[in-house]
Specification:
alpha/beta; Alkaline Phosphatase, subunit A; seven-stranded mixed sheet; 11 helices; about 30% helix; globular
Length: about 375
């Protein structure tokens, strides 16, 4: 039975969206919100090692395929969603108008939408680091070997910010909580050097801090905004009481649309000149979750949109021969927004390898070999 923040059975109640309490009598076949999992014993062991592994250190190097540096965009806003199925977005053709604001911006030419996008993993702890570092499904060690995108931004003279409504330090969140710590300004439920409090799962509570730092912006700025988005339990993601969507997952999409509209409005008011990227960490099998063993590709399918058509065109040029764009390559677009250039040879290699994704065991598999689940067009 699904509880407020997880799944409940006769021996265990799991609370706190990404955190699990493991007791000695629990079997390794325990089920929770994103499906049957890896052995709980191995996760506990990994958590102990992680305390050392995910310690913040300044990195000296970045890959040699990063070439010339020029002046980048003045402001870059990198919004990372959560558990978002594009098939439930009105802007992607869903039969319900779950994205009225984004759809209007699309009609007005203010944003562009990239179709057929997949994530490099179906768990947040695996996917987000690949969006904000040089880690890939085939090069896991790059997370610790090279500078991450926060460090690369600072190297280019950007002020850096990380606004997050997810927990950072438990066993599920450490990989991206580790990256968040590199930002100058950090607002999370556990670590916060702003004057704006934030509780887990309250995306709308990020907006006062975002407004403040947009308004006080100076020189060049790189903002990472990490949402709880559409994560289970969907009923907790409805947002305002006047949300018109009956279905809870549809309501969570409607709420993300509202949050993104607020971010755009604040950026228009205070930043003027900015590039914005919105991408979900991974997808969702609605009603079941994500990150569980499956031969289907649905939990990898995600939305991607930007506020500059030229960058959507660049994404189109990075499609694999399976006609999909992997969000693992989004970091290369963001790096170019910062003023870096990426060697042509690496772009070819990255596209060639972009079909690889990580499964629930963290094994690299081919997305193109999973069974395709078409996006729903009507409710």
């Amino acid at each position: 039975m699904v509880s407020a923040f997880g799944v409940q059975n006769s021996s265990l109640t799991i609370s706190n969206t990404h955190q699990l309490l493991f007791l000695s009598h629990i079997s390794t076949s325990t089920r929770f919100f994103f499906g049957p999992l890896i052995s709980s014993v191995s996760i506990i062991a990994e958590n102990i090692v992680d305390d050392v592994k995910y310690k913040k250190v300044d990195h000296e190097e970045y890959p040699d395929y990063i070439k010339n540096k020029t002046a980048g965009s003045t402001n870059i806003i990198y919004v990372i969603g959560e558990s978002s199925n594009p098939g439930r977005y009105g802007i992607y053709g869903y039969g319900k108008d779950t994205t009225p604001n984004l759809s209007q911006m699309d009609r007005d030419g203010k944003i562009c939408v990239v179709n057929n996008v997949h994530s490099p993993a179906a768990q947040t702890r695996l996917a987000v680091p690949m969006l904000v570092s040089f880690e890939t499904p085939l090069q896991r060690g790059n997370l610790f070997k090279y500078k991450n995108l926060i460090e690369m931004a600072e190297l280019q003279g950007y002020h850096t910010y990380w606004f997050d409504s997810q927990m950072q330090n438990n066993m599920w969140n450490k990989p991206f909580g580790y990256l968040a710590k590199y930002a100058e300004v950090l607002q999370t439920p556990e670590e916060n050097n702003t004057r704006f409090p934030i509780n887990e799962g309250q995306d709308e509570k990020l907006l006062p801090a975002i407004k403040h730092y947009f308004k006080e912006s100076q020189e060049r700025n790189f903002y990472v905004i990490h949402l709880m988005g559409n994560h289970l339990p969907y009923s907790a993601r409805r947002g305002d009481e006047d949300n018109p969507m009956v279905d809870d997952y549809d309501a969570s999409i409607y709420n993300v649309d509202d949050t993104l509209q607020s971010i755009f409005t604040l950026a228009d008011s205070y930043l003027k000149d900015y590039k914005l990227v919105y991408v979900s960490d991974h997808g969702e099998v609605v009603g079941q979750g994500h990150g569980f063993p499956s031969s289907d590709n649905e939990m990898y399918k995600i939305p991607l949109l930007m506020n500059d058509a030229s960058w959507c065109a660049k994404a189109e040029q990075l499609r694999n021969n399976n006609h999909y764009f992997s969000s693992d390559l989004t970091k290369l677009l963001v790096l170019e927004m910062m003023g870096y250039s990426v060697s042509d040879q690496h772009l070819r290699d990255a596209v060639k390898n972009s079909d690889f994704v990580l499964n629930e065991k963290e094994d690299a598999i081919r997305f193109s070999e999973l069974r395709d689940v078409p996006l729903p067009q009507h409710p």
